[in-house]
Amino acid sequence: MSNRPHAAILILVIAFVTFLLRFLPFFVFSGKRKIPDYILYLGRVLPYAIMGMLVVYCLRQTSFSDVSLWIPQALAAAVVIGLHVWKRNTILSILGGTVLYMVLVQAVF
Q1: CA–CA separation, 70 vs 58, rounded Å?
Q2: pLDDT of 27-67, one tens digit each?
Q3: Residues 101, 88: contact at Cβ < 8 Å?
Q4: pTM surpassing 0.70?
Q5: Which of 40, 102, 52 is CA-nearest to residue 81?
Q6: Structural domain spans, the chain
Q7: CA-to-CA separations, 83 to 23, 29, 45, 95, in angstroms, rounded
């Protein structure tokens, strides 16, 4: 028996749930209903909290036993910070750091 129907159903369910979660706030807070203050607060602080959590997650297993293990991560993190301070563009910062890290890991170290 093929797994294709199972995979197709799984993809459809995941797509539906993702669609529902993305558009549910627009349905709940549409019209003349005022958005609660705590939701506005979360909208302001959560992006920074998530970025901080991602930094900790990405750098949590950094080993300082050998220079080639931590230099690519340190340089990529510095590029992300530098690009973000310079251009204030999150996508450019993350993309620049990722490309530099992959080049360093694959070609240099």
Answers
A1: 12
A2: 888 877 888 899 899 999 998 899 899 889 988 999 899 88
A3: no
A4: no
A5: 52
A6: 1-32, 34-108
A7: 32, 35, 21, 10
Phi, psi of 47 (to 5 degrees): -60, -40
Distance CA 31, CA 21 (A): 19
Residue with tokens 């690519």: 72
> What confidence score (pLDDT) does residue 51 get?
86
Whether 70 and 62 have beta carbons less than 8 Å apart is answered as yes
First to last CA, the chain: 46
Cα separation, 17 vs 27, whole angstroms? 15
CA distances from 38 to 30, 32, 44, 58, 63 (A): 17, 18, 10, 29, 39
Query: H-helix or E-strand containing 66?
Result: none
Distance CA 101, CA 46 (A): 26
User: Cβ distance 97 to 80 under 8 Å?
Assistant: yes
